[in-house]
Amino acid sequence: MSSTNPISSTSGKQSAPDASPTRRLRDTLVLLGLFGLVLVGLIGLAAATGWEETRAQLAKLTAVQFAALLALSLVNYLFRGLRWHIFARKLGLPTGLIQDLRHFLGGFAMSVTPGRVGELVRMRWLKRETGWAFERTAPLVLVDRASDLSAMALILGLALAFSTTGIAGGLPVTVLALIAAFAATRPRLLGWFATMGHKITGRFARLWAKVRRASLSLSAFTSPTLMALAAMIGVIGWIAEGYAFHLLLMWMGADIGFAKAVAIFVFSTLAGGLTGAPGGVGGAEAAMIALLAMEGVPLEVSVPATAIIRVTTLWFAIGIGLLVFPVAERNSLRHTHGLEKD
């Protein structure tokens, strides 16, 4: 877990340069391994349905259309990055918009870690650049993910309401996502969890104390107005990617309707996250292909469509993260060295 915790003022600074290349190599290998597994699975499905049909569907997509899909994904990332900045300012962090965007986008490089735990590297950068302890900034992660859950739950609920056919399990997933989003932003609940955790385990007193201190910082995000704004920003971002999926299906001759396309995209993304697999890889693709099949979309269309939308969303985000990550790392180290000189 050392790759996600903020480094300390002594031993952390000494060990980070040696450990960092090893961690980056490990994460890169995980990334390549996951991509390879998904690619093998999709190739197998494409071969089973016929290479000619799959190739014909892929040929329907032009470079301009592919660029449009990437642009819609970028809308999602930038809007969510803006939301991260709003949360950071609300917490009182002395960071600017570009700085917060650098942290947010750079963290995507760690999306392939189980449960996206590696994205906590953002807290390490904040520790280096502002001096704020991990427990003071950790609520940013909770409220950011809670906002994503609430936004996706709202989108899924509305999309299911306006689509002609439902999705099995769609309503329970919507309700569970809303409950999880609510629970993750309750300071008292987090404090109670820390207290009970200490009582039950009887160990890790320092860890539970940090969780309790984190619950105090979480109280900065209890404003209904703030959370409504955050949900609206999240809805705009995720709708952009859902719309991209709708456009892709239309371009490939499988128009199932905007509401249904968005519902399938959001449900599959949530389902992939529930598997606990890094980036939801495997689960999201399987759910997407299965749900498209239930709508009568043949495999020679659903397989390439799934591959393309995942490349232009998840893998595009990881690509951006890999580009921004070294920049964020260098900038954070520069701040650290500046503090040492002072």
TrEMBL record:
Region (Disordered), start-end ranges: 1-21
Topology relative to the membrane: Multi-pass membrane protein
Transmembrane segments: 29-51, 57-79, 149-169, 216-239, 305-325
Keyword Cell membrane belongs to the record: yes
The UniProt record lists the keyword Disulfide bond: no
Subcellular location: Cell membrane
Signal peptide interval: none
Keyword terms, alphabetized: Cell membrane, Membrane, Transmembrane, Transmembrane helix
InterPro entries: L-PG_synthase/AglD
Biased composition (Polar residues): 1-14
Main location: membrane
GO cellular component: plasma membrane
NCBIfam families, sorted: flippase-like domain
Record protein name field: Lysylphosphatidylglycerol synthase TM region
Species of origin: Aliiroseovarius sediminilitoris
